[in-house]
Amino acid sequence: MSASRRTGNVPAFVPAFVPACVLALFVLTALTAQWIAPFDPAVSGDLVADRLLAPSTTHWFGTDASARDVFSRMLFGTQVSLGIAALSVAVVLLVGVTWGVIAGLAPAWLDGWMMRFVDALMATPRLLVVLACVAFTGRLSATSLALLLGLTAWPAMSRIVRARVRELDATDYVAAARALGAPRMGIAVRHILPGVLPAAMVTAILTVASVIPLEAGLSYFGAGIAPPTASWGVLLQDASARPLDAWWLLLFPSAAIAATVMSVNLLGERLRGRDRSLLAP
Amino acid sequence: MLRFAAARARQTAIVAFVVTSLAFVLVHAAPGDPFATSLDENSNFAAARAEMRLRYALDLPLWQQYPMMLANFARGEFGTSFGEARPVSAVLTDVIPDTLLLMVPALLIGVLAGVAVGTWQGAHAGTWRDRATGAFALSVLSIPEFLLALIASLVFAVRLRWFPGTGIFSAGAVHASWLDTVGDYLHHAALPVSVLALVIGCVVARFQRAAVVDTLNEEFVRTARAKGAATRRVLVHHVLRRTGGSLFAVLGLLVPTLVGGAAMVEMVFGWPGAGATLVSAVGSRDYPLVIALVLVGSIAVCVGSAIADAAAVLANPAIRKEA
Q1: Which of A119, A129, A138 has its CB closest to that of B32?
Q2: Lower CB density within 10 Å: C or N end of chain B?
Q3: CATH code at B88-322
Q4: Do residues A212 and A145 make contact, with C-beta atoms less than 8 angstroms apart?
Q5: A213 → chain B, closest CA residue
Q6: With a CB-CB cutoff of 8 Å, which residues 212-251 of chain A face chain B?
Q7: Which ipTM score applies to this complex?
Q8: What's the domain count of chain A?
Q9: Which range of residues forms the domain containing residue A200?
Q10: Sign of CA dihedral A217, A222, A226, A229
């Protein structure tokens, strides 16, 4: 048994396929919610007879105060929460990688300014910025919340990408390409970008672990996406009115959030290996 | 050290400028009005609104309002809170000490416990106790802070009634002596401080464990062992001194996240601090209060990170070049 296996952190002892399967299950659920949901998530049942039913064979996860089926709402909530995470990570990848590659290849003065800007953004507490935006624009749609979360999360990505670009820029094969007269743009896209992507993907995965709790928290406190669209956070907000007598309203969204974040963390750390430079954002 | 301080002061100024400008743009780009909710449609709505807009200088052209706001901020004047009808600075002096009463003990307990547990884990790396502790830390960190706070509040405050669920002092309580005051505070603070300290402790323990595992493989540790130093002495005198620097650096990076987490814990426990106030100010569109709280929060984060980075350099002068 190698030394790294003996002294490795928890993730090293969990086979990588476990978190991968959990995540795949959630993604599959999100993609097929329309077809597997037994009830319409937005339509109330009998407001007297079907209100706040405990989990049963008809309503697997029970019903909420508006007599809606919690299982169906969870399925669509998965779609919304994972959709927000995917879109914001796409923004992080797009902006962060572009910014990082440009800064890494730019002349020193421009690189200095670009990185100083990144430092300033990283020193700004994201929750405050997002709350301030919500204060002045009112409740957001799922898409704009995702864009907002993405636009506040890319600086960590750009810092990691820039460091990797500087390393690659000093390699012999890039020097060779330059000696052969390859255009700068061509070197950046054909020779440097592919080398940056593995680190960028790991960072993207770890970004999901920060976006999902943030979205859930914002929605829980009524500063996230506007109802009737239900994300996991919105479902938790529904639960907060009667947390003790209707435990199923609280349990299922909480478990979904915890399972997703934990799987993402396990997978991300596994892929990251022992490379400390890929600090979780 | 002076150059370091100057660089950080410049960075703080940039952050403050960016955040205030962003807030200013958002205030004026957004539709809606802070006075819309407090004025009834039946009253002389348009006239009253026009008067309020005039009084709070919301009608001036933007190129006049913006420098005016910056100049006022520079003098420490944040205007009047629309919601609380008193100067924003008075609100700030009320809520900031309460936030410190939550964050400072949580940070102290969390960092100390995290370092202790992480070092213990690192010294026993690979044993089942190390793995169980690591799995526990990872589980805690997979649950958002507000959810941990909510669960703690439901179990210990609502169901078991061991601790009060909201506030920093009992409502309307008259304390006979300062000892009573402290006791009341401790009773209220136990849950929120524990939740926050648990989260901080888990983050710190994970970094500390990794740092200790790395450091134990280094030559100077082997030398210390070869000299016959006891394990405890090696850990305290050699390993902890090395890991201290990177720990402070990590804490500096974590400050923005911690502030966000503390705000969420405050909201769940109805702690009358800056975070809970910010969220209610967001709800009521109390622009001056929101801008001031975001500004103060950002500056506090910059100062916090700067202190952490300075401590990192002091603990390990080898990383000075990066400052």
Answers
A1: A138
A2: N
A3: 1.10.3720.10
A4: no
A5: B144
A6: 213-214, 216-217, 220-223, 236, 240, 243-244, 250
A7: 0.79
A8: 1
A9: 67-278
A10: positive
